[in-house]
Prior knowledge:
By secondary structure, the chain is α+β, with helices and mostly antiparallel strands. Helices cover 20% and strands 22% of the residues. It has two helices and nine strands. The chain has helices spanning 3-31, 97-100; strands at residues 61-67, 70-74, 82-84, 113-114, 122-127, 130-135, 138-139, 157-158, 163-166. A hairpin with a 4-residue loop joins strand 8 and strand 9. The longest helix has 29 residues, at 3-31.
Amino acid sequence: MREGTRMRRSWLGRGLLLAVAVxxxxxxxxxxxxxxxxxTTTPGTSTTSNSGGGTxxxxxxxxxxxTTLGNVLCTSSGMTLYTYTADSTNKSACxxxxxxxxxxxxTVSGTPTGGSxxxxxxxxxxxxxxxxxxxxxxxxxxxxxxxxxxxxxxxxVTDSLGTWFVAKP
Length: 169
């Protein structure tokens, strides 16, 4: 067999693999309720986030930030916070890695504090062994598709269990 024929077959095989793998990965992400994708690192010095909802330490400050959707709750670095309709009062339904990788929960190693404009009650619950921040009993999350302060790409994202909404003060 000639070298050129072997190379063409090799590239054809790779192209076929990509043609199958890309739609399969997109379907898997869609099943998790993710219109975006990627890994997560929520900016900020005192708030949290990584896949699995791990803590980076410190006390979380919840603030009110202006966005295209109006005033919403946000982290100290301005990242939008979300609530999930599948959650019940003081209990997170987002406990599987497939969920927490997309919707890292806001965690704290101390007591959460509210900045100016935060009028509701901040509290904590234990989720996956971590101390998750709540607002009026609703667990709070960030969203990996939000790349900068003020992004609200998680608004109205629906998955098999419920819908995600920006947390309102």
